[in-house]
Amino acid sequence: MNRIAFFLLSVAQPLTAQTLDSALLKTMETQLIKTGTTVTIDYVFYAHPEAIDPKNLVLLNTVLVFLKSRETLSVELGCHTDCRGNAGYNKNLSLRRCVNLKDWFVQNGISTERLTAVGYGEEKTLVECPEQVCAKCTEAAHLKNRRVSITFK
Q1: Contact, 66 vs 28, CB < 8 A?
Q2: Which value, in Å, is the radius of gyration of the alpha carbons in the chain?
């Protein structure tokens, strides 16, 4: 599993960018040609529950270019939260975030049939922070759990 760090924050306007992360694109082209490979996007921050920050456009556009070059690949966009808040709220929140991310890819030319949005909430944490001790988890643990996984199919 590859790890790619970037931040998702908040904007209301449409997103555009001209630059790509050439190292990431090369990694994706050489390592992600098999189905079942997952890229994990770590350290996801949101100032608003469903909005994407323009700071992420380089990485998002890099994934977009890769998807456009591999027209037979479909992806599952899996959004994850930390344990703060109740499980039902977190599952719904992660789904809303994923739908927003899916919409961004569709608006930028990827067919909706190739994209599946799944909100996992706190179901698949990487760092275990059980609800009863969630407040004792470090911010680093919360950040590790707040992520987006992109699984190529």
Answers
A1: yes
A2: 15
> At 79, is the secondary structure helix, strand, or coil?
strand
Partnered with residue 119 across adjacent β-strands are 79
Helix axes 87-107, 57-69, angle to 10 degrees: 60
Give the CA count within 13 Å in the CB-facing half-sphere of 101: 35
Residues with Cβ within 8 Å of residue 63, at least 6 apart in sequence: 28, 39, 150
Q: Count other Cβ atoms within 10 Å, centred on residue 14.
A: 9
Chain segment 114-145, per-residue pLDDT in tens: 999 999 998 988 888 766 678 888 888 888 88
Tokens of 15: 């997103």
